[in-house]
Amino acid sequence: MLDHVSVGVSDLERAARFYELTLATLGLTRLVTRPATIGFGKAYPEFWINLRAGMKPVAPESGVHICLRARSTDVVDAFHVAALGAGGRSDGAPGIRPHDRVKYYAAFVIDPDGNRIEAVTFPSG
Fold first, then answer.
1. Whose CA, among 12, 41, 42, 58, lies 20 to 30 Å from 32?
2. Could you tell me the residue range of the domain that residue 26 belongs to?
């Protein structure tokens, strides 16, 4: 249903380092590099970071949240570790999230600009 998503960043190179390490755990690599934008994906740029000079950190109460699908719980764990190692902050450690309709396993991180990113998988059983 969605074709791609993008987030604003205040420092393109800092964000590129963060997202290269973090998204690699999900199988996404840098596919496109332009002066003010970088696209990541598997075969097509699905996730973009866009330079917004002078951007202030995203307010925690903004409600902005992007969730990316992971193949397994191990990948969700690796996503969280990579994000923290690349300068992100935890917004929810990896674990089962009970929900009224489905059980899912997820981790939540905040990038250096305050964007909230989640990795999720749906374990069987």
1. 58
2. 5-53+65-121
